[in-house]
Amino acid sequence: MRTTLYILLPFLLIGCLGTKKTTERSNVTRQTEKSEMLRDSSRTKSINRAIDNEYMIPLKSTDSLVNELVREAFSNFSAGARSGSNSTRIVFDEDALAFKIASIVGETSDIETTTTTETKMERSFEQILIENTKKVIRMIPMWVWVALLLWFAPQIMSRIRLLVNPLIGILKKSNKR
């Protein structure tokens, strides 16, 4: 029976080792910021037609002598100016006895640009909890040690007696003196 116990004892000790569960937690926080800018432009172009005006300023009088003097004074009169597509011309018309003013304003265009800018910001926080659980074999359970102590108690006591008996004899001899 003892040999069976000696063979089974190592298997019992190895199979019944105590385990301890440890948990390691780590917290990871990640912040993400996303910014998006939207720009919208609209362009409006309006074209105005050219303006062509002609005016007459009459200089005719009821007196023929005055009319003759006016014809003589302005017979070669002609004036004009030009700037890009705009021009003005003044001419004396001897037959009508009047100034003809011709004014041409070229085609114009108005361009209106409207720009709208919109900014979208998005922030997000992401928190991840990582949990690692480990089982660690730490020790032989206490009940195994108690069982071994009870099993081997008679042998342990006999060994202690072998050590203590000579000491008791020495102590008794020293007390007698």
UniProtKB/TrEMBL annotation:
Recorded superkingdom: Bacteria
Protein name as annotated: Lipoprotein
Origin species: Sungkyunkwania multivorans
